[in-house]
Amino acid sequence: MKVALFVPCYVDQFYPQVGIASLQLLEKLGVKAEFPAAQTCCGQPLANSGCEKDALPIYRHYVDTFSDYDYVVAPSGSCVYHVRKHFDKLEQTPEVQQVRTSAYDLIDFITTVLGVTEIPGTFPHRVGLHLSCHGQRGLHQANESEMTPVRDGQLRRLLGSLNGIELTELDRNDECCGFGGTFCVSEAAISARMGQDRVADHVRNGTTVLTGGDMSCLMHLEGIVRRRQLPMRVLHAAEILNGTLS
Amino acid sequence: MNHATRAAKFVGDADRTTWHDETLWFVRAKRDKAVYAVPEFQDLRELASQIKDHTLSKLDTYLEQFEEQAKRNGVHVHWAADAAEHNAIILDIIRKHNATRVVKSKSMLTEECHLNPHLLSNGIEVVDTDLGERIIQLRDEAPSHLVLPAIHLKKEDVGETFFQHLGTAKGEIDPQVLTEAARQHLRARFLAAEVAISGVNFAVAETGGVVVCTNEGNADLGVNLAHVHIAAMGIEKLIPRLSDLAVFTRLLARSATGQPVTTYTSHYTKPAAGKEMHIVIVDNGRTKQLGRPDFRASLKCIRCGACMNTCPVYRRSGGHSYDFTVPGPIGAILSPNIDMKKHSSLPFASTLCGSCSDVCPVKIDIHTQLYKWRQVLGEANEIPASKKWSMKLMGRLLTSPKVFGVSGKLARQGIKYLPYSLTHARHFNVWAVARELPTPPKQSFREWYQQQAKNPA
Which of A21, B24, B296, B365 is the most exposed place for a label (fewest CB within 10 A)? Predict the structure, then answer.
């Protein structure tokens, strides 16, 4: 099994520890992933801004970089969703089809491909799980409150398997945090308010460690947590799982 | 003014935003409860979606069948290509009866066509009889929601409006007292009305009849008291058979407000003895939308408003921030079809979270259409030039790993070494108005990875 790690551009630059944790976590679970140095970005920021045509060369660069791998794993459901859903704009060569099916969110890969359902570790904290929309509604990694009252999902189960962990129950289990890519600056006022409301839900329900599967949402929420100097740590789920696993 | 500017103004009143958000979330939660209680709800959505897809694919046939049946029932059928024709037809009918007093039950189509100002400027008194509609009519405002047109107002606002227009006591905010005042006020208008205008929720091709769903019974009161009934409908309101209606009535009220069904589901098929019934069938841009394969499905909308209640942006920006008859996510995919330039910011008023598509009772892929409108707008140069050029630059940068690595490093160093007052200056960096920037790490991931490769632990 030939596996590549795709590290989203902003993770590469601002959250290297998330890339490191992803790589190490995979290794502990028996997968030696490579990091192809030629990788850059999936092109989503451009496409979401209405500049899909300008993103096509980025798509092609992604395909050239990753088409040789059986799986391309990223600690971000949003990038994966973009590759799977929006690379339909490219001519559907075998290489393009390959990268569209081989792209996996890290947690999805661990759960679905590796079949891991429990992580033997201890994390004695009150953990609030932020469900990222593209992972949840786009990649179906978690139940949706629009469909069912049952709160269930891949990451909830993995985290729930840790010893000593207490998952906080939110008033609104899966409301968007308001990051939204370029939305966070083009609609800065609404974006910030949405983030503040999400953070307030976590504060109200006792979260001391805020986590999730997508660093982009967490970057936005962390920005609010730090501005308000709240006693809350923000960690990508890969950091928690990797840290507890020996 | 774009959506972001109007939204920033709305959200600037933090307490009111909290109230607006929580009020609509309450409706969303009621909807969830009602949906969970129907095990076959997702099958109903699929069925409704297929019925609408089918109907749109044979719309010409069903429209002609509907017209033929309606005429057979003794109904006058009129065709309007646009808002101006719609308004002219209705004014003409009213004039033929020498009428001046008109009551109207809720119709987003007549809002879309700006019928009220047209009638008023021609000396016709037109009174909206839906309570919410009447409130905003008195205030000379546009509806801010499809089914809750006055949801942007608090009872204090309504009290003040009724004090000014209906003679209630100053400071009176008891909902029951205010509603009773509206009731008495409207009752007089109902009794005096010569013509009643209604919207249409569903038009049944096989019977030629129209169906109107209300909670207040105001459509019935208007239609049954007046001599003339004019029903105005968009061409997309059709369903093939009467038996199809059950699928939609089970979905509509649950999706809209969490009720199992609207209080009144009124069927109007033919005029009562000695009375007249007219149906005005309106295009007004709908066939243009039907001709856009990527956006055709937006015509499946049954106007339940669920996408508004669930939209985290709408709840915090208010319906008026969209500046279009139909606000919220569905409005953002309908409006560019009408005026791409004016409404160019609406498809960007979304995080593409997808909740709208998941609550839509007819399974319109709303968030996908928002994404696709963005591309159409980008191609048509209807996005800000600064965005366009920065994206072009980014496109260059992200196809070259070397340039990407260097510019990433520059960005990190910039945040690290430039003074906080500069990196977090609100005028240059809107991110920083409410959020800290990430703390720049010493190394990027790729730098760490290369170092590891050289010196494995």
Answer: B296
A15 interaction partners in chain B (CB closer than 8 Å):
438, 441
Residue range(s) defining the domain that contains residue B365: 1-37+292-383
Size of interface A-B (CB pairs under 8 A): 214
CA distance A163 to chain B (A): 30
- B343 backbone dihedrals φ, ψ, rounded to 5°: -105, 20
| Alpha-carbon gap, residue B381 to A165, rounded angstroms | 51
Note whether B348 contacts A: Cβ–Cβ < 8 A: yes
Judge if pTM exceeds 0.90.
yes
Instruction: Verify whether the Cβ–Cβ distance A146 to B36 is below 8 Å.
Output: no
**Is B253 in the same domain as B360?**
no
Best A10, A15, A46, A51 member to test B by mutation, with max B CBs in 10 Å, is: A51
Q: How many domains does chain B have?
A: 3
Q: What is the CATH number of the domain that holds B307?
A: 1.10.1060
Query: What pLDDT, in 10s, does the model give residues B327-381?
Result: 999 999 999 999 999 999 999 999 999 999 999 999 999 999 999 999 999 999 9
The complex's ipTM works out to 0.97
Tell me if A12 and B317 make a contact (CB, 8 A cut-off): no
Which of B14, B42, B440 is closest, CB to CB, to A147?
Answer: B42
Distance from CA of A111 to the nearest CA of B (A): 23
Residues B176 and B232 in one domain: yes
Residue in B230, B289, B284, B276 with CA at minimum distance from that of residue B85: B284
Q: Give dist(CA A28, CA A25) in Å, integer.
A: 5
The residue type found at A105 is D
φ, ψ for residue A235, nearest 5 deg? -130, 140
Angle of helix B175-192 relative to helix B155-165, nearest 10 degrees, comes to: 40
- Is the predicted pLDDT of residue B457 greater than 70, yes or no? no
Same domain, B378 and B410: no
Distances (CA, A) of B102 to B130, B150, B224: 13, 21, 13
Residues B115 and B173 in one domain: yes
B237 and B122 in one domain? Answer: yes
According to CATH, the topology of domain A126-244 is Rossmann fold (3.40.50)
B237 and B214 within one domain: yes
Residue B393 lies in a domain: no
Helix (H, G, I), strand (E, B) or coil at A234: strand
User: Residue A194 is which amino acid?
Assistant: M
Please state the separation of Cα B260 from the chain's center in Å: 21
Q: Which of B313, B374, B447 sits opposite A190 (nearest CB)?
A: B313
Residue for token digits 């720049």?
B440
In the beta sheet, which residues pair with residue B30? none
- B368 lies in a domain? yes
> Nearest CB to A179: which of B4, B351, B355?
B351
Residues of B with CB below 8 A from A182's CB? Answer: 387
- Give A-chain residues touching B3 at CB under 8 angstroms: 187
pLDDT tens digits, residue range B394-440?
A: 888 888 888 888 888 888 888 888 888 888 887 778 898 899 999 99
Please report whether residue B391 resides in a domain.
no
**Residues B47 and B171 both lie in one domain:** yes
| Calculated CA dihedral for residues A90, A96, A101, A105, nearest 10 degrees | -80
Statement to judge: residues B327 and B245 lie in one domain: no
DSSP label of B293: T
| Contact between chains at B434 and A41 (C-beta distance less than 8 A) | no
Please state, in angstroms and rounded to a whole number, the distance separating the CA atoms of residues B362 and A245. Answer: 45
CA distance B171 to A100: 62
